[in-house]
Protein backbone atom coordinates (compact mmCIF):
# COMPACT_ATOMS: atom_id res chain seq x y z
CA UNK A 1 0.00 0.00 0.00
CA UNK A 2 1.25 3.48 -0.74
CA UNK A 3 1.37 5.83 2.24
CA UNK A 4 2.90 8.97 3.53
CA UNK A 5 3.46 9.01 7.27
CA UNK A 6 2.12 12.42 8.30
CA UNK A 7 -0.71 13.18 10.75
CA UNK A 8 -2.67 10.24 12.18
CA UNK A 9 -0.38 7.77 10.45
CA UNK A 10 2.63 8.65 12.60
CA UNK A 11 0.49 9.00 15.75
CA UNK A 12 -0.91 5.51 15.18
CA UNK A 13 2.56 4.26 14.31
CA UNK A 14 3.84 5.22 17.76
CA UNK A 15 1.00 3.36 19.43
CA UNK A 16 0.40 0.30 17.27
CA UNK A 17 3.85 -0.82 16.05
CA UNK A 18 5.96 -3.12 18.16
CA UNK A 19 9.55 -2.44 19.14
CA UNK A 20 12.08 -5.14 18.37
CA UNK A 21 11.97 -7.27 21.55
CA UNK A 22 14.94 -6.83 23.90
CA UNK A 23 16.36 -10.33 23.35
CA UNK A 24 16.27 -9.90 19.56
CA UNK A 25 17.86 -6.46 19.87
CA UNK A 26 20.69 -7.98 21.93
CA UNK A 27 21.23 -10.69 19.32
CA UNK A 28 21.14 -8.14 16.51
CA UNK A 29 23.68 -5.93 18.31
CA UNK A 30 25.94 -8.98 18.59
CA UNK A 31 25.51 -9.85 14.90
CA UNK A 32 26.41 -6.25 14.02
CA UNK A 33 29.51 -6.26 16.25
CA UNK A 34 28.13 -3.19 18.01
CA UNK A 35 30.16 -1.87 20.95
CA UNK A 36 29.42 0.53 23.80
CA UNK A 37 31.55 3.20 22.04
CA UNK A 38 29.64 3.09 18.78
CA UNK A 39 27.27 5.49 17.08
CA UNK A 40 24.37 3.68 15.42
CA UNK A 41 22.41 5.25 12.56
CA UNK A 42 18.74 4.21 12.26
CA UNK A 43 17.62 5.14 8.72
CA UNK A 44 13.84 5.52 8.39
CA UNK A 45 13.66 5.31 12.19
CA UNK A 46 9.91 5.90 12.47
CA UNK A 47 8.99 6.28 16.14
CA UNK A 48 11.96 4.22 17.31
CA UNK A 49 11.04 0.53 16.88
CA UNK A 50 14.75 -0.29 16.40
CA UNK A 51 16.40 2.86 17.79
CA UNK A 52 15.01 2.49 21.32
CA UNK A 53 15.82 -1.20 21.95
CA UNK A 54 19.26 -0.90 20.30
CA UNK A 55 20.23 2.22 22.23
CA UNK A 56 21.45 0.26 25.27
CA UNK A 57 23.99 -1.54 23.07
CA UNK A 58 25.84 1.56 21.82
CA UNK A 59 26.94 5.05 22.81
CA UNK A 60 24.37 7.02 20.83
CA UNK A 61 21.74 6.59 18.13
CA UNK A 62 21.16 8.98 15.26
CA UNK A 63 17.60 8.50 14.02
CA UNK A 64 16.97 9.79 10.47
CA UNK A 65 13.50 10.10 9.02
CA UNK A 66 11.94 12.46 6.43
CA UNK A 67 8.59 12.59 8.29
CA UNK A 68 8.51 15.15 11.14
CA UNK A 69 5.57 13.38 12.81
CA UNK A 70 7.62 10.22 13.15
CA UNK A 71 10.50 12.11 14.76
CA UNK A 72 8.06 13.85 17.12
CA UNK A 73 6.79 10.41 18.16
CA UNK A 74 10.32 9.17 18.76
CA UNK A 75 11.28 12.27 20.75
CA UNK A 76 8.14 11.87 22.89
CA UNK A 77 9.60 8.59 24.12
CA UNK A 78 12.29 10.66 25.85
CA UNK A 79 14.97 8.02 25.37
CA UNK A 80 18.35 9.43 26.36
CA UNK A 81 21.15 9.20 23.80
CA UNK A 82 18.89 9.25 20.74
CA UNK A 83 19.28 12.25 18.44
CA UNK A 84 16.73 12.82 15.68
CA UNK A 85 17.51 14.24 12.25
CA UNK A 86 14.97 15.24 9.62
CA UNK A 87 16.57 13.50 6.68
CA UNK A 88 16.43 10.67 4.20
CA UNK A 89 18.63 8.08 2.50
CA UNK A 90 19.81 10.77 0.09
CA UNK A 91 21.43 12.56 3.06
CA UNK A 92 23.74 9.66 3.95
CA UNK A 93 26.68 10.93 1.85
CA UNK A 94 26.56 14.20 3.80
CA UNK A 95 26.41 12.27 7.05
CA UNK A 96 29.47 10.35 5.92
CA UNK A 97 31.43 13.56 5.72
CA UNK A 98 30.64 14.08 9.43
CA UNK A 99 31.13 10.54 10.72
CA UNK A 100 33.94 9.16 8.57
CA UNK A 101 36.09 12.05 7.39
CA UNK A 102 38.36 13.96 9.78
CA UNK A 103 38.62 12.37 13.23
CA UNK A 104 35.60 10.08 12.94
CA UNK A 105 36.06 6.34 12.37
CA UNK A 106 32.55 5.82 11.06
CA UNK A 107 29.33 4.40 12.44
CA UNK A 108 29.31 1.08 14.26
CA UNK A 109 26.09 0.18 12.49
CA UNK A 110 23.37 1.39 10.16
CA UNK A 111 19.99 -0.24 10.68
CA UNK A 112 16.97 0.05 8.39
CA UNK A 113 13.70 -1.36 9.76
CA UNK A 114 10.72 -1.90 7.44
CA UNK A 115 11.82 1.14 5.45
CA UNK A 116 14.22 0.13 2.67
CA UNK A 117 11.36 -0.41 0.20
CA UNK A 118 10.74 3.37 0.35
CA UNK A 119 14.25 4.10 -0.90
CA UNK A 120 16.49 3.64 -3.91
CA UNK A 121 17.66 0.32 -2.45
CA UNK A 122 21.09 -0.15 -4.10
CA UNK A 123 22.02 3.51 -3.54
CA UNK A 124 20.83 3.49 0.07
CA UNK A 125 22.69 0.26 0.90
CA UNK A 126 25.86 1.55 -0.76
CA UNK A 127 25.66 4.81 1.18
CA UNK A 128 24.95 2.90 4.41
CA UNK A 129 27.96 0.63 3.85
CA UNK A 130 30.17 3.66 3.22
CA UNK A 131 29.30 5.01 6.69
CA UNK A 132 30.68 2.02 8.56
CA UNK A 133 33.85 1.73 10.59
CA UNK A 134 35.95 -1.37 9.95
CA UNK A 135 34.09 -4.31 11.50
CA UNK A 136 30.80 -2.41 11.55
CA UNK A 137 27.56 -3.69 10.06
CA UNK A 138 24.42 -2.82 8.13
CA UNK A 139 21.15 -4.50 9.14
CA UNK A 140 17.98 -4.59 7.07
CA UNK A 141 15.17 -5.69 9.37
CA UNK A 142 11.73 -6.66 8.10
CA UNK A 143 8.60 -7.91 9.83
CA UNK A 144 6.42 -9.95 7.61
CA UNK A 145 4.10 -10.67 6.17
CA UNK A 146 2.26 -7.34 6.42
CA UNK A 147 -0.80 -7.91 8.60
CA UNK A 148 -3.18 -7.80 5.63
CA UNK A 149 -1.27 -10.53 3.78
CA UNK A 150 -1.21 -13.08 6.61
CA UNK A 151 -2.65 -16.58 6.22
CA UNK A 152 -5.26 -16.48 9.02
CA UNK A 153 -8.95 -16.26 8.01
CA UNK A 154 -9.36 -12.93 9.85
CA UNK A 155 -6.46 -11.55 7.81
CA UNK A 156 -8.11 -12.65 4.56
CA UNK A 157 -11.19 -10.76 5.79
CA UNK A 158 -9.13 -7.63 6.44
CA UNK A 159 -7.57 -7.94 3.00
CA UNK A 160 -11.00 -8.23 1.35
CA UNK A 161 -12.22 -5.07 3.13
CA UNK A 162 -9.08 -3.15 2.15
CA UNK A 163 -9.41 -4.23 -1.45
CA UNK A 164 -13.00 -2.90 -1.75
CA UNK A 165 -12.61 0.10 -4.03
CA UNK A 166 -8.83 0.11 -3.63
CA UNK A 167 -7.70 -2.76 -5.86
CA UNK A 168 -5.25 -5.44 -4.83
CA UNK A 169 -3.06 -4.85 -1.77
CA UNK A 170 -0.38 -7.48 -2.34
CA UNK A 171 2.82 -5.45 -1.76
CA UNK A 172 4.99 -7.30 0.80
CA UNK A 173 6.86 -4.11 1.80
CA UNK A 174 10.15 -5.86 1.14
CA UNK A 175 9.41 -8.78 3.49
CA UNK A 176 9.45 -11.49 0.76
CA UNK A 177 12.25 -13.91 -0.14
CA UNK A 178 12.97 -12.28 -3.52
CA UNK A 179 13.63 -8.92 -1.84
CA UNK A 180 15.83 -10.63 0.76
CA UNK A 181 17.96 -12.31 -1.90
CA UNK A 182 18.27 -9.15 -3.97
CA UNK A 183 19.37 -7.17 -0.91
CA UNK A 184 21.81 -9.91 0.13
CA UNK A 185 23.41 -9.73 -3.31
CA UNK A 186 23.75 -5.94 -3.08
CA UNK A 187 25.52 -6.23 0.29
CA UNK A 188 27.80 -9.04 -0.97
CA UNK A 189 28.70 -6.96 -4.03
CA UNK A 190 29.95 -4.30 -1.60
CA UNK A 191 32.32 -6.86 -0.11
CA UNK A 192 30.32 -7.26 3.12
CA UNK A 193 30.00 -10.62 4.93
CA UNK A 194 26.30 -11.47 4.88
CA UNK A 195 24.19 -13.41 7.38
CA UNK A 196 20.45 -13.91 7.72
CA UNK A 197 18.69 -14.46 11.06
CA UNK A 198 14.98 -15.06 11.63
CA UNK A 199 12.78 -14.88 14.71
CA UNK A 200 9.18 -16.18 14.79
CA UNK A 201 6.48 -14.86 17.08
CA UNK A 202 2.74 -15.36 17.53
CA UNK A 203 0.78 -12.41 18.90
CA UNK A 204 -2.76 -12.37 20.23
CA UNK A 205 -4.24 -9.13 18.91
CA UNK A 206 -7.63 -7.49 19.21
CA UNK A 207 -9.93 -5.48 16.97
CA UNK A 208 -8.72 -2.07 18.15
CA UNK A 209 -5.11 -3.08 17.70
CA UNK A 210 -5.70 -4.36 14.16
CA UNK A 211 -7.54 -1.18 13.14
CA UNK A 212 -4.87 1.03 14.73
CA UNK A 213 -2.09 -0.95 13.07
CA UNK A 214 -3.77 -0.63 9.68
CA UNK A 215 -4.17 3.11 10.25
CA UNK A 216 -0.39 3.29 10.73
CA UNK A 217 0.03 1.76 7.26
CA UNK A 218 -2.48 4.00 5.48
CA UNK A 219 -2.52 7.71 4.63
CA UNK A 220 -3.80 10.20 7.20
CA UNK A 221 -7.60 9.97 7.48
CA UNK A 222 -7.92 6.73 5.51
CA UNK A 223 -9.63 4.93 8.42
CA UNK A 224 -12.59 7.35 8.04
CA UNK A 225 -13.16 7.22 11.80
CA UNK A 226 -15.94 9.83 11.66
CA UNK A 227 -18.04 7.94 9.09
CA UNK A 228 -20.60 5.31 10.21
CA UNK A 229 -19.83 3.14 7.17
CA UNK A 230 -16.17 4.18 6.92
CA UNK A 231 -13.21 1.86 6.60
CA UNK A 232 -12.72 1.45 10.37
CA UNK A 233 -16.33 0.34 10.83
CA UNK A 234 -16.16 -2.10 7.92
CA UNK A 235 -12.94 -3.58 9.35
CA UNK A 236 -14.56 -3.85 12.79
CA UNK A 237 -17.55 -5.71 11.33
CA UNK A 238 -15.27 -8.15 9.53
CA UNK A 239 -13.16 -8.78 12.65
CA UNK A 240 -16.16 -9.24 14.97
CA UNK A 241 -17.35 -12.08 12.74
CA UNK A 242 -14.12 -13.97 13.73
CA UNK A 243 -15.26 -14.12 17.41
CA UNK A 244 -12.13 -12.41 18.70
CA UNK A 245 -9.74 -15.23 17.81
CA UNK A 246 -7.12 -13.01 16.27
CA UNK A 247 -3.65 -14.53 16.21
CA UNK A 248 -0.92 -12.90 14.16
CA UNK A 249 2.17 -14.85 13.07
CA UNK A 250 5.14 -12.59 12.48
CA UNK A 251 8.56 -13.45 11.11
CA UNK A 252 11.26 -10.91 11.82
CA UNK A 253 14.20 -11.19 9.44
CA UNK A 254 17.55 -9.50 10.02
CA UNK A 255 19.83 -9.34 7.01
CA UNK A 256 23.25 -8.27 8.28
CA UNK A 257 26.28 -7.25 6.23
CA UNK A 258 29.57 -6.82 8.16
CA UNK A 259 32.55 -4.87 6.90
CA UNK A 260 35.68 -6.95 7.50
CA UNK A 261 39.19 -5.62 7.85
CA UNK A 262 40.55 -4.23 4.56
C1 LIG B 1 7.17 1.55 7.85
S1 LIG B 1 8.07 2.85 8.62
C2 LIG B 1 9.33 1.98 9.53
C3 LIG B 1 9.65 2.61 10.86
C4 LIG B 1 10.58 1.83 11.77
N1 LIG B 1 11.94 1.81 11.27
C5 LIG B 1 10.13 0.40 12.00
O1 LIG B 1 11.00 -0.49 12.04
O2 LIG B 1 8.93 0.15 12.21
C6 LIG B 1 8.98 3.49 7.26
C7 LIG B 1 9.71 4.77 7.62
O3 LIG B 1 10.59 5.10 6.53
C8 LIG B 1 10.56 6.51 6.38
N2 LIG B 1 11.02 6.83 5.03
C9 LIG B 1 10.28 6.91 3.89
N3 LIG B 1 11.07 7.25 2.86
C10 LIG B 1 12.33 7.35 3.34
C11 LIG B 1 13.61 7.69 2.77
N4 LIG B 1 13.72 7.96 1.46
N5 LIG B 1 14.69 7.72 3.57
C12 LIG B 1 14.58 7.43 4.89
N6 LIG B 1 13.40 7.11 5.49
C13 LIG B 1 12.30 7.07 4.73
C14 LIG B 1 9.11 6.89 6.66
O4 LIG B 1 8.95 8.24 6.98
C15 LIG B 1 8.80 5.95 7.81
O5 LIG B 1 9.06 6.54 9.07
TrEMBL record:
Species source reads Goekera deserti
- Residue ranges of domain Methyltransferase in the record: 41-136
Question: GO terms for biological process?
Answer: methylation
Query: Protein name, please?
Result: Class I SAM-dependent methyltransferase
Q: Where are the transmembrane segments?
A: none
The reply to whether Cytoplasm figures as a keyword in the UniProt entry is no
Write one Pfam family the protein is assigned to: Methyltransf_25
Q: Which UniProt keywords apply?
A: Methyltransferase, Transferase
Kindly list the GO molecular function terms attached to this UniProt entry. methyltransferase activity
Question: What taxonomic lineage is listed for the species of origin?
Answer: Bacteria, Bacillati, Actinomycetota, Actinomycetes, Geodermatophilales
Q: Does the keyword Methyltransferase apply?
A: yes
Q: Which domain of life is it from?
A: Bacteria
Amino acid sequence: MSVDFAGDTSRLYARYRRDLPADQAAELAHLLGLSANDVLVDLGCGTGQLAVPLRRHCRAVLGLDPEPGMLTGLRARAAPGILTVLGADSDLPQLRSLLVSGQGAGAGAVVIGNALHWMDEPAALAAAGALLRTGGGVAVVTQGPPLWLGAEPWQAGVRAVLEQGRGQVRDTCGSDEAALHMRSDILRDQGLDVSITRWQATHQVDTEWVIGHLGSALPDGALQLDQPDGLAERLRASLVSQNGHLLEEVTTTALVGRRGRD
